[in-house]
Specification:
Elements (H helix, E strand, L loop, with lengths): L21 E7 L8 E6 L2 E7 L5 E5 L13 E2 L4 E2 L6 E2 L6 E3 L18 E2 L1 E4 L2 E6 L27 E9 L3 H9 L4 H4 L13 E9 L2 E7 L6 H4 L8 E8 L3 E8 L2 E13 L2 E10 L8 H27 L13 H15 L10 E6 L1
Antiparallel strand pairs: 1-11, 2-3, 3-4, 4-9, 5-6, 6-7, 7-8, 10-11, 12-18, 13-14, 13-19, 14-15, 15-16, 16-17, 17-18
Helix pairs in contact: 1-5
Pfam family, one: Rieske
Keywords: 2Fe-2S, Iron, Iron-sulfur, Metal-binding, Oxidoreductase
GO molecular function: 2 iron, 2 sulfur cluster binding; metal ion binding; oxidoreductase activity
Length: 363
């Protein structure tokens, strides 16, 4: 489900440094039919994505290495991508050139030694995940060395799934700290089925460090959130665990005996100044009840739209590049994120969370 994409007046927003050498979701794969291509922008990189006749998907840099014309201006026959300008043909998964029509028998140039930009591309949870390497990393020959492709945790073979997406007119840093902010719920997400300002009460949660991130340890879900109360019908203890992992991933898992709900939320930089939020959820709760996926998407879309509208409004203020104020304890996860990101970009520093820490806030 695509949400509306309101824009401010076009004034450039503050940019953020982006993390390469990672997997990012480019687009939904249900839009990729065999023999067709689509374009996308990811971390400022123009992409051409498509599905070959054998069902495999690919992601190429949408630029011909010959003269720089977008490959999307050309043709795709289900097996090769052909440039519109001079007819060069490329195998899209690896980017290898297979034909240069202008060459004659006396030319010594070997087309197969030429490569267009191509990136590892894998289908997971209905997304085309694209690995964008660090600048200067060169062509990736051994894909077994890459990080594991992210996906939503699953705890049974039968489950339902849903996806939501929204464009945000702010840089990825603002998108992410908004994603992990624990104090905005009663204000941004006011609704009879979620929370109100009157429902605010003190909370305390234990956080522990994990590799390239941190975890809100397993705990009973918020008593002032109506959706969690529905799980009480199963008569089991309900627990929630939330992980944040660089560069942009929030995993949430809710367990109630054999029943479960899990989600992966990502905030992906589209450009240095804009980003996109994607939520993929899987669950076996109320598995046999009709219309649950439609209902979940309806209320989920309202929830994400509230975040989107807030970020659109915030973007108006960010045009003036104000100094940010981060306080303790509710803003400590944001501080950890910035420290983790800086450590990743520079290769220096310790994990900002030295050990388990209990945070307190009201929401």
């Amino acid at each position: 489900m695509k949400l509306r994409n309101d824009k401010p007046d076009g004034t450039p927003q503050p940019p953020a440094e982006m993390i390469f050498g990672e997997w990012y979701p480019a687009l939904r794969t249900n839009a990729l039919s065999k023999g067709k291509t689509l374009t996308a922008l990811l971390l400022g990189v123009p992409l051409l994505l498509g599905r070959k006749n054998d069902g495999s998907i690919f992601a190429m840099r949408d630029l011909c290495p010959h003269r720089g014309i977008p490959l999307s201006a050309g043709w795709f026959d289900g097996d090769t991508v052909q440039c519109k300008y001079h007819g060069w043909k490329f195998e899209p998964c690896g980017g290898q050139c297979v034909e240069i029509p202008s060459l004659t028998q006396i030319d010594a140039l070997e087309p197969t030694k030429i490569y267009a930009g191509a990136y590892p591309c894998v289908e997971r949870d209905g997304h085309a995940w694209v690995y964008l390497p660090e600048a200067g990393a060169g062509r990736i020959a051994d894909r077994s060395t890459l990080p594991v492709v992210p996906e939503v945790p699953k705890f049974s073979t039968k489950f339902r799934t849903a996806h939501l997406s929204a464009e945000l007119p702010c840089n990825v840093d603002h998108g992410i700290i908004g994603l992990m902010d624990p104090a905005h719920g009663p204000f941004v997400h006011q609704a009879w089925w979620w929370r109100s300002q009157a429902s605010i009460h003190e909370k305390k949660k234990l956080f522990v460090p994990i590799e390239e991130g941190f975890r809100m340890a397993s705990h009973a879900p918020s008593a002032n959130s109506a959706p969690y109360k529905l799980l009480g019908v199963y008569g089991s203890e309900i627990t929630t665990t939330i992980d944040f992992v660089l560069p942009n991933r929030r995993y949430e898992t809710i367990r109630a005996g054999e029943k479960w709900f899990a989600s992966l939320t990502t905030v992906t930089p589209v450009t240095p100044a804009t980003c996109r939020i994607d939520v993929v959820a899987c669950w076996n709760i109320f598995y046999g009840v009709p219309f649950v996926p439609a209902i979940a998407k309806y209320f989920g879309a309202k929830f994400v739209r509230q975040d989107q509208e807030t970020m659109i409004e915030q973007a108006e203020g960010l045009r003036f590049r104000p100094a940010m104020m981060l306080i303790d304890d509710a803003d400590l996860p944001a501080k950890w994120y910035f420290a983790l990101k800086q450590r990743r970009l520079t290769g220096k520093g310790e994990h900002p969370l030295a050990g388990p820490m209990e945070l307190h806030w009201r929401s």
